[in-house]
Amino acid sequence: MQHDETTNAGSFLVCGLGNLGQSCISLLKDFGAKVNAIDILENPNWQFPNSPDSLDKIITGDCRQPEKLEKAGVNDCRAILIVTSDDGVNIATAFAARLLNPEIRVVIRCAQENLIELLRDSLGNFDAFEVTKLPARSLALAALGTETQGHFRLENKLFTVVLANIDTTHYSWINLQLHELNNSNRRVLIHARKNKPFPKIFYKWGLNDRVCIGDQVAYIEVTDNTTNHTTLQSQNQFKRRQLANGIKWQNLPENLLDWWKKRSQSVRVVLLYAPFMAVLLVLGTVFYYLQYFPSFLDQNGKLQKFTLKDAINNSVVLIIGGFDNLFGHLKLEFDIPWLLYLFSLFLTISGTIFSGIVYAIITEKIIASRFQFSIPRPSIPKSNHVVVVGLGRVGQLVATRLQEYEQLVVGVNTTEIEPDVLPQMSVVIGNIKQALKRVNINTAKSVIAVTNDEVLNLEIALRVKAIHPQANLAIRTFDPTFSQSVAPLLPYSRVLNVYTLSAEVFVAAAFGENIESLFRLNNQTNLIVKYKVKESDSLNGKLLAEIAYGYGVAPILYQDNKGGSAEFMPSDDIKLAVGDRLILIANIKGLQLIEQGIPNDKNCQLYVEKISSPKIISKAAKIFSNISGCDITSVKKLMKKLPQTLPVDLYEHQAQRLVNELHKFEVIARIEKK
Asked: Distance between CA atoms of 163 and 370, rounded to whole angstroms?
């Protein structure tokens, strides 16, 4: 968003001049910003040849030291990006910068997710991102080769970005006008004719253009995120009803027999033995109670009381192996009949056997639980699977995403991974070149190379392409120059530079934008950005149509400043006001235009030739006012002097919409390009 120059809007400080830091500097300079930097090395390894010249000031030293920060101009900066490879250094620098400049925007690189939330509360005006996590979803989707380009969630809704290649399976779309594809749940972003270049900018198509076989259509669609939950709930309800229906008196023997067959042999023995032991417990209690109640004489001739509780206690002690506690003396303290003595011995023997069986079952369960992680992983799928080469943090995240998309995944790594890491995934350990021969590469759907060695990733891609030319490929790179050189030579694969991709998120966050998610479309990163409109913002007072077509962005959620319900895929005719909330899709160029407050030029006007009846002037004027944002009174006056070109500048999509809507009221109008 546009900011006042007095707030040093164009001044930024970057700490750490690795690949990520240099990528951030390159993007910030594209915004026309003033950039200073601090690095621990006097001569960093420059990946961007022009980086040293593009910096306004570079300081050598430890960025945690307040004097270094002050020397680099932290007190005059709008934001500081702290992107060294050490989380501890980044966090310490963030606190030092906040003490020196309480108003500065702080954006750091940090992998400690739990700590990030605490830092947000402590530092304020702060954001943090994990570089390894940002590209994981993009890498996973890039390798699938499906129409789906991105997923993200907002307000309990699932948004899906799709790139559809129009063929006979899209029969319901063929020959429709593009604007007819738009509805309350869907918005068309990009359209390309067969064999024509795919535009990198949204809305480079006409509303009345028709969909043909061979076209490509990129669109975003929103669905209710509770669908899966509802389905699962329905399935559980069905199971409960099925169970309730099955438990009937006439089916009881059959159900019991089925339940019995499913139990292990040791459990069956316990279940059979338990009633027998219960009977013995009752008999022992009765025998002792009848023999000694209400009292008996001990060996000293003293009268001892005896209660039902004492009878129960004697039986329990005998059952749990306490025979010696009652009869362990050479001379018993009380008289006991031989039959009761022998029954007590039988009670103890039976209880010991029963206890042994129970202890054996418990021991078996404990041993099983301790060795449950040793359960073998699934076997390698025969076909239609995704191979992830490199199971570091990025590789594990990519594999997790793929499993979320219900894909069969095989991991390849040089060293063993913990048994509890992705236990449902097949894993091959060893030399990667040899391992590739064991994972059925020739029948795999996709291969993703995400090792920490970009040259090895390239080698893997080339090897896979030689074995299986139809496989979808995605490789992870780090060096921007390497990425730019390799990408044209591998048109069949997706080359994703993790630092370039992540830098776009860091820079957008440095300008104060809240980044909700990101996705890749046509080899370009698109960010999901959340705005809250302020008085001085360049978005304040604009129609959503002017924002969408002026900046080349796609508004997907709007909520007014009164806290009303959120509108998904909001109307172009909404005018933003202070306090409104807006979430939109934008690439870095669109964010740059919004930041500078410089929209694309309106290049159309409307020539209104004829209105069928004076009675509809008011309706026509209202339509024109809603779509263009003009004062309705002025429009009415102009429409009384037809034919003429109305002196209102419009974007092409606005103008075409106006022609379509006015045509419904028999108003003859056409678009004139300026």
From this structure: 48
* Cβ neighbours of 70 (radius 10 Å): 15
* Residue 73 · residue 15 · CB < 8 Å: no
The whole domain housing 297 covers 265-370
Q: Which residues share a beta bridge with 188?
A: 219
Which residues of 416-456 form beta strands (DSSP E)?
A: 426-429, 446-449
Closest C-alpha among 372, 428, 378 to residue 407: 378
Range with lowest mean pLDDT among 262-266, 310-314, 329-333, 641-645: 329-333
- Minimum mean pLDDT range among 186-195, 328-337, 380-389, 579-588: 328-337
Q: Which residue has the higher pLDDT, 491 or 232?
A: 491
The alpha-carbon radius of gyration of the chain (Å, integer) is 37
Q: Say yes or no: 92 and 161 in one domain.
A: no
Distance CA 121, CA 119 (A): 5
- What CATH number does the domain containing 51 carry? 3.40.50.720
Q: Residue 520 is encoded by which pair of tokens?
A: 């890749």
Asked if 531 and 148 touch (Cβ cutoff 8 Å), the reply is no
Q: Provide the 3-class DSSP secondary structure of residue 64.
A: coil
Q: What total of structural domains would you count in the chain?
A: 4
d(C-alpha 510, C-alpha 80), whole Å: 7
Contacts of 53 (CB under 8 A, 6+ apart): none
Task: Establish if 428 belongs to a structural domain.
Answer: no
CATH code, domain with 353: 1.10.287
User: Does a structural domain hold residue 536?
Assistant: no
This prediction has a pTM of 0.67
Distance between CA atoms of 207 and 570, rounded to whole angstroms? 17
Per the listing, tokens 């730019």 go with 484
In tens, the pLDDT along 133-162 reads 888 888 888 777 668 888 888 888 889 999
Helices 617-628 and 652-663, axial angle in degrees (round to 10): 160
Closest C-alpha to 668, from 649, 647, 642: 642
Cα–Cα dist 506/28, whole Å:
10
| 124 and 211 housed in the same domain | no
Asked if 37 and 15 count as a contact pair (C-beta separation under 8 A), the reply is yes
> How many whole angstroms separate alpha carbon 582 and alpha carbon 571?
12
Phi, psi of 480 (to 5 degrees): -60, -40
| Same domain (yes/no): 39, 112 | yes
Task: Say which CATH number the domain at 185 has.
Answer: 3.30.70
Query: Residue 467: is its pLDDT beyond 60?
Result: yes
Judge whether 357 and 270 are in contact, CB under 8 Å: yes
One domain for residues 103 and 15: yes
Residue type, 596: Q
Choose one of 330, 351, 370: the last residue of a domain: 370
Q: Please tell me whether residue 630 adopts helix, strand or coil conformation.
A: coil
Looking at the structure, tell me whether residues 30 and 88 fall in a common domain.
Answer: yes
Burial class (CB in 10 A: 0-12, 13-18, 19+), 151: middle
What 269-278 contacts at long range (C-beta under 8 Å, 24+ apart), as own/partner pairs, is 269/357, 270/354, 270/357, 270/358, 270/361, 273/353, 273/354, 273/357, 274/354, 276/350, 277/319, 277/350, 277/351, 277/354
Q: Over 60: is that where the pLDDT of 380 sits?
A: yes
What is the spatial distance between Cα 100 and Cα 71, in angstroms, rounded to a whole number? 12
Supply 120's token pair: 């947000």
